Amino acid sequence: MDDELDRAANVLDNATQVVIFSGAGVSAESGVPTFRASDGLWEGHHIEDVATPDGFERDPDLVWAFYNARRDNVRSVKPNPGHFAIAELEKLVGRVTVATQNVDGLHLVAGSTTVLELHGSLRETRCLGCGVIRNRGLEVLGPKPLCPNCNGQLRPNIVWFRESLPRKTWTAAEDSVTACDVLIVVGTSAVVYPAAGLISLAKSAGATVVEVNLTPTNASGYTDIGLYGPSGMMLPKVVERLRQLKSSE
Ligand code: OAD
Description:
- It is built from ten helices and nine strands.
- The protein has helices spanning 2-13, 25-28, 47-50, 53-58, 60-75, 81-89, 106-110, 167-179, 197-204, 231-247, and strands at residues 17-22, 95-100, 115-117, 120-127, 133-135, 154-158, 182-186, 208-213, 225-228.
């Protein structure tokens, strides 16, 4: 493992552009549950019921109860050493972009400045009437919140299954992985597309791919360097080694 950590620090030392592609695992050590538990449910719910436009149409109360519970969870959690190590990378590498599938906002709280939230944000609402997207922070929204503008029905500004990713955010993610020297894939099972397609795109554009995960995943076939262990432990180790390399130059 020491060798792999050194290899990761070395490729980062020679990189000018780095992209972090993150998933639920990076927030697991903060106490945010990951998605793919062995029972196939999301905290007791079928994905179809709480993360599709049809589910919302059928039962908006249930969907809001689910997302209000997740907002509540995020109110009580903090970034972990993995998030902080990613933010710290900005001091050591020319350009760092975080393309995250997470909706918990913890990369931003940790201090990362360029964060592409591919699947939206738990903090945001979108009005089905006037279309306005608002950052409501983590304020308590109640069981079926209405738009302060037009009194229309609000939905969480989350990308659900069968929906498209926000176009500008997705284009920015594609551009950044195409241009990067190193892609760090952290805490994702890499099974949800199009987001997971960023990995093969980076690889085919010549990036070195580093995977940080508890176990090998669908991303592992593209991986040049595998760091298998908790991201809250692995990422600070890599960043510490990189800091040592930079200070000895
Ligand atoms: P998953 O729940 O599919 O995968 C979590 C990954 O994190 C797994 O590969 C775990 O092995 C890994 N993991 C868990 N704890 C870890 C730790 N401490 N350190 C490192 N790795 C750890 O979550 P995602 O891949 O993020 O989409 O799921 C992708 C998308 O599926 C989500 O964004 C969500 C869901 O559908 C939407 O909500 C649209």
